[in-house]
Specification:
12% of the residues lie in helices and 45% in strands. It is mainly beta. The chain has one domain: 2-Layer Sandwich (Gyrase A, domain 2). The strands form two sheets. A four-stranded mixed sheet has the order 1-2-8-7. Strands 3-4-6-5 form a four-stranded mixed sheet. It is globular. It starts with a strand and ends in a 22-residue tail after the last strand.
């Protein structure tokens, strides 16, 4: 699972295996170790009708409606988007997407990523 944070947006990208686990088990979590502290990031199924996010105890958690995830591993839906009002006139853009193989040369293992539609 990868997370990208930029200003008021957060984007999660999931491999094939991670999409399947999220769909069946309803929860994924990873951490990045900074030595004296860790940053956690998680995706969780929820019964709510809208996507939301929270940041508590050094962990970003994206909550995704369960009905959105039904069949996601097997269908062609790339991902889902939501906007969460922050109460001060701004909002947080939230994205969760299937992770595609890069078209350029990269050193990371991409064997569990989805085929890039631009190569099909």
């Amino acid at each position: 699972m990868k997370i990208r944070i930029q200003r008021n947006s957060v984007r999660f990208r999931l491999s094939k295996t991670e999409v399947s686990i999220l769909e069946s088990e309803g929860y994924l979590e990873e951490t990045t170790d900074f030595g004296s502290a860790q940053l956690g990031y998680a995706v969780q199924k929820t019964r709510a009708a809208e996507m939301t996010a929270r940041f508590e105890q050094n962990k970003v958690t994206l909550e995704v409606p369960a009905e959105w995830l039904e069949g996601w591993a097997a269908n062609n839906t790339v991902g889902f988007e939501g906007n969460m009002p922050l109460g001060d006139g701004t909002s947080l853009l939230m994205l969760i997407e299937k992770d595609f193989k890069c078209l350029d040369n990269v050193t990371e293992d991409q064997s569990d990523n989805y085929e890039n539609p631009k190569t099909c």
